[in-house]
Input
Amino acid sequence: MKDLLDRDSAIPLYTQIETVLREMLATREWKSGQKIPSESILQTQFGVSRMTVRGVLNMLADEGLLHRVPGKGTFVTETKIATRSPAYQGIRQQLEDRGYSTETEMLSFELVRAPEKVRAFFEIPEGQHVYEITRRRFLENTPVTIHRAWVRSDLAPGLDRFDVADRQLCEVLSTEYALNVKNTDEALEVVRATETQAELLQCEPGDPLLLLTDQLRDAQGRPFEYTKLYMKGDRMKLEFHFES
Output
């Protein structure tokens, strides 16, 4: 890397090193999540002081391009995948439309007594059963989201006949039961991963997750789906668009 620096240039060496490292990040020579060489190795490769290298790395870390893990080293920050709320279009469809390879794993699909919040939204009697569907979604073979949905069984009888891992749940409800979303109430918050969620998403218990809660009604005003979508905060982000 010494050959990449022009020591006779008026451009400071730290600026030249910054340019080289930014190029390595832009061209993915240093890939997302990869551990980069240590300060001492980069110092030797560039033929500069360790303080110069540290200053450049600190600047890139401040911008969020790199992140340091105490005792382990410096890593390339994983790029966050931007999606819109599922109320606009299913997450899976959004990812596949952008060229990502996805896979959905069915974790559970059963009739259960509606939890209190779900029962209150559905406006159904205590003890009435609803479908509870839990799925895990993979992006490029890495788990990124957990989808937990409750659907009114009286509005979608026999829903468990359909493969909602291969097909999107919203598509099945629309096509097979004419349950199309007309109104959506959403809540977005940050939560900490439980031990079970951490195991499913291959992260640490207590790591931040984005939790998007959707309550869906059809054109007749009937509440038919209550969904909790857990997303890895270091891989996913939500974008919103408003017009006035």
